[in-house]
Amino acid sequence: MSEHTDTDDGREEAAMATARARLYGLLAATFDGETETTAAALDRGAFAAVADVFPIDIETADLRGDGYDADALGVGYDNLFVVPGTHYVPPFASAHATDPSEAFESDSRYHTAGEAGELLGDPAADMAKLYAAAGFSPERGDEIPDHVAACFEFMRALCEREAALLEGEGTEADLRAVRELQSRTLSRLGWIDRFEAAVASSDTVEGVFAAIARLARTFTAWDAREVVQTEPQPSETTPS
């Protein structure tokens, strides 16, 4: 039975959770290569509009306009996040770790025990544990648990769940549990600082992915500090 009442504070918290979910959803779609969604969002100013909801200074000048083509964005996305090359930036946490993974064993041919920056390292194991704790199976991120798209998809789902609970669909214990999962997830997203810096140095033509990565870094840091009140860790692994 719900322990929540229909108060102004509760409605404001639910609205904030919904806005957070919307932005995490846009970020998840973008970094999963849904360039038609990205182009449409840019065309209608969705990134900027959602960013404007939050009491934080987010640069949105490069996130407005109708001059973005989905096919062109697709080429840019592939060059940055799919095809290894001079502009390639791995979109998963394990690649940006500075400590070698030790606990996570992988039969992937890309995993080299004792070396940092492998695919499917300890950060992937950490995220997989969080998904399991929530009964969540990411559909984004190419089955890489620490892929940025999968992480943002998870945060979208958690924020949507928070909004539903605030609107009266659960107990205070349920709400504490979902907020704890948000805290644990955001504490593992400190690597996005390095990811954003790498995208900024590689996305020198279109610049749109650099702008969205900057939005993601700024927003997740604010969300961790001001809303969820946790400390994001750097790109090294974080104990569960």
Description:
With 240 residues, the protein is mainly α. 55% of the residues lie in helices and 0% in strands. It is built from 9 helices and no strands. The protein has helices spanning 8-31, 35-43, 46-51, 70-81, 122-134, 148-169, 172-186, 192-202, 208-228. The chain is globular. The two termini are 31 Å apart.
Supply database-style keywords.
240 residues; mainly alpha
Write the layout of secondary structure elements.
Elements: H1 8-31, H2 35-43, H3 46-51, H4 70-81, H5 122-134, H6 148-169, H7 172-186, H8 192-202, H9 208-228
Helix pairs in contact: 1-6, 1-9, 2-4, 5-7, 6-7, 7-9, 8-9
Query: Beta-strand percentage?
Result: under 5%
Shape: globular
Order of helices and strands: HHHHHHHHH
Share of helix, binned: 55-70%
Number of strands: 0
- Compute the average pLDDT: 85
Number of helices: 9
How far apart lie the N and C ends? 31 Å
What's the story with the biggest beta sheet? Answer: none
| Uncertain runs | 107-116, 235-240
| Spatial extent as radius of gyration | 18 Å
Output the structural class. Answer: mainly alpha
What would you say about this model in short?
It contains nine helices and no strands. It has helices at residues 8-31, 35-43, 46-51, 70-81, 122-134, 148-169, 172-186, 192-202, 208-228.
